[in-house]
Amino acid sequence: MIKQSIFGRIAQLAKANINAMIDAAEDPQLMLDQMVRDYTENIREAEAAVAQTIGSLRLLEQDHAEDVREAQEWGNKALAASNRAEEFRASGRSSEADKFDNLAKVALQRQIQYETEARGTEPQIQSQTQVVEKLKDGLNKMRGKLQELSNKRDELNARQKSVQAQSQVQDAIKAFDVLDPTSEVSRFEDKIRREEARLLGQQELASSSLDAQFESLEALGQQSEIEARLAALKSRNAEKIVSSEEV
């Protein structure tokens, strides 16, 4: 029953079209997760059954080897007894010879018994060996399917994460489009330009006030020079008048 169950699973797994199952599934990721768990459990059960079958085969092989060994030993005993009987018969001791011939017959009977048992286990060993080979092959197929399933699951998970990331990027882009951040930047730029213009105006005003002060200072200096020159002229004229009167 266990072997039939295992062979049934192996046949099912070998025929399984994973891509078609994924296409038909409502939620491929959940389906693959469940399949991986199911196949892993199937493999565990199959490994236990295969190990048990191999153990039974090894016991049969040991029993067969023991029967062959016993048959050889009883054959050797039969030969030894027969040779001993011939020795006694050659020396005229017929009763002793008959005794060893009887022993040889008993040994030959045992030899035949073990040979029969050995031949009886040979078909079982052959059949069991074929079963073990099929089970091993089926187990390898199950492992291959499990690896295929695992790869598909990992691939699907990676693709799903990629889709989610792309969706988040698209949502962010749409959000920026709705907010129109360029208009906010433009308003900020206008504010900075107004501040820059105000600062330029203050600098220009400060510069004009300073120039006016210097111009006023220069005008004051020029007026002082004029007054000094006028005083000098008057002084020279006064000297000329005094000189003329003395003459």
Automatic annotation (TrEMBL):
Pfam family, one: PspA_IM30
Coiled coil (residue ranges): 132-166
UniProt keyword Coiled coil, yes or no: yes
UniProt entry keywords in alphabetical sequence: Coiled coil
Keyword Coiled coil found: yes
Family: Belongs to the PspA/Vipp/IM30 family.
PANTHER family: MEMBRANE-ASSOCIATED PROTEIN VIPP1, CHLOROPLASTIC (PTHR31088), PHAGE SHOCK PROTEIN A (PTHR31088:SF6)
Protein's recorded name: PspA/IM30 family protein
